[in-house]
Amino acid sequence: MLQIKHLTLTHRKDLRVLTEDFSFVLNPGDKAVLIGEEGNGKSTLLKWVYDPALIDSYCEWSGERAGETGPAGYLAQDLEETEKSGSIYEFCAASPDFFDLTPRELSKIARQLRFPAEEFYSDRAVGTLSGGEQIKLQLGRLLFRHPALLLLDEPSSDVDMETLLWLESFINSYEGILLYISHDEALIENTANLILHIEHPREGKPPRCTAHRLCYQEYVRQREGSIASQTQQARKDREEYDKKMEKYRRIQQSVEHAQDAVSRQNPGKARLLKKKMHAVLSMGRRFEREAENMTQLPEVEQAVFLRFPPDAVLPAGKIVLETWYDELFAGEKFLAQNIRLRVMGGEKVGILGPNGAGKTTFLRLVAEELLQRRDINAAYWTLAVFTY
C-alpha cells in the first residue's frame, strides 16, 4: 500500500501552489490516473512520489509518503538527449539489474513488451526508435528490477493504435501499483479504477485536488451531474435573492421618501420613520449575510484550446503540397518507398501507420519543405517544440 498524506507542492519561482493538502491511498492492483490541464503539477507530483529530490530545484513541498511498496520505476515524458544518442544496449546496461537477468527472464520481459529480445543488445541508436518502441524500451528497463510501483508520465503521447492497445493490456495486467498521467480518455476509461484530479479553477485561488475510486465514465457522469445541479441551485438562489433585494429597495426608497417629506412640525411621525429605517437597514444586512451563504456557481477549470484565426484559410483549388519520395530512410533503416502526396486547400490529411513505419520522419520532411515557402504561413508542432 502507498499512502500520500497532506501533500502540498509550491513552485519556488512564482510561489504558485500546484497541490494543496492532497491525500490518497493506492493499493496493489490499483490503476490510478492523474488528470488535469497542462501546467497543473501532474508531472511534478509523479516525480515527488518517485523521489522528492527530483523536484527540489524548482518546487517546495510538505507532506508524507507512507507505506512500503518495494522497488519503484519511473517513466519520464522524454528521454535525455544523451540517452537518445546512445545505443539500445548502453541504455539497458545503465540498469545494473540488466546483468542479473537470466535469458529466460529477459525473454519473458520481451514477450510482455512485444519487443524483440535481441534488440536489448543492439548497437542501434535509441533516437532512431519510434515513439512506441522507445516507450517499450523504457518500460523494459524498468521491468528489469521487477518494480512493485510503476509511475508513467504520459506513456500514450507518441504511440500508434497498435501500441496503444498493447499499452492498455499492459496496464490492466500489471499486478503492482500503477500510477500514470494521460489525456487519452479511451485509455483512461479502459484501465483506470482511481481518478486523481488536479484542478486550478481560478488564478489566485487554491487548487482543488480530489480522489475518486470510480471508473472514468462514472466519474465524468457524476461530476457533470454535480456541476449541473450546483449551477441550477445557484441560479435559483440568485433569482430569489434578487427578488428580495428588489422588494427591499422599494421599501427603503419609500421610507426615505417619507422621511424627506415629513414636516418638522410632526416629530412623532419622524421618530416612527427613523425606527422604520433602522428596521429596513437591519433587513438589508440580513440579506447580505444570506448572500454570503448562497450556493455559488461552480468554478470549473477552462481547458486551453488552439484555434486558428478566421482568415487562416486557403482556396480549395490551391495546391498546398505536391511531393514524392522514391525511398524513405531513418538513418540506415529503410522505412517506405514510392510515397506520393498531394494536398489541396481546405483538406485535412492524417498519416496512419504502425510505430516505426516512418510517419514522423515523413512529416518532418514535409514540414521542412513547407516552412521554406513564402506563399503560405506554415507551422510545425512536435511533442518537443512548436515552430513557426
Which short descriptors sum up this protein?
10 helices, six-stranded mixed β-sheet, 13 strands, disordered C terminus, alpha/beta, about 400 residues
SSE layout and pairing:
Layout: E1 2-11, E2 17-26, E3 31-35, H1 42-50, E4 59-66, E5 72-75, H2 81-85, H3 88-93, H4 103-113, H5 131-143, E6 149-153, H6 161-173, E7 177-181, H7 185-191, E8 194-199, E9 208-212, H8 216-261, H9 267-292, E10 319-330, E11 333-344, H10 359-371, E12 380-381, E13 386-387
Parallel strand pairs: 3-7, 3-8, 5-6, 6-7
Antiparallel strand pairs: 1-2, 1-4, 8-9, 10-11, 12-13
Brief account:
The chain has 388 residues and is an alpha/beta fold. The protein has helices spanning 42-50, 81-85, 88-93, 103-113, 131-143, 161-173, 185-191, 216-261, 267-292, 359-371; strands spanning 2-11, 17-26, 31-35, 59-66, 72-75, 149-153, 177-181, 194-199, 208-212, 319-330, 333-344, 380-381, 386-387.
Structural overview:
- The protein has 388 residues and is α/β, with parallel strands linked by helices.
- It folds into three domains: 2-223, 3-Layer(aba) Sandwich (Rossmann fold), CATH 3.40.50; 232-292; 319-387, no CATH class.
- Helices cover 38% and strands 22% of the residues.
- A hairpin with a 2-residue loop joins strand 10 and strand 11.
- The chain is elongated and about 110 Å long.
- It starts with a strand and ends with a strand.
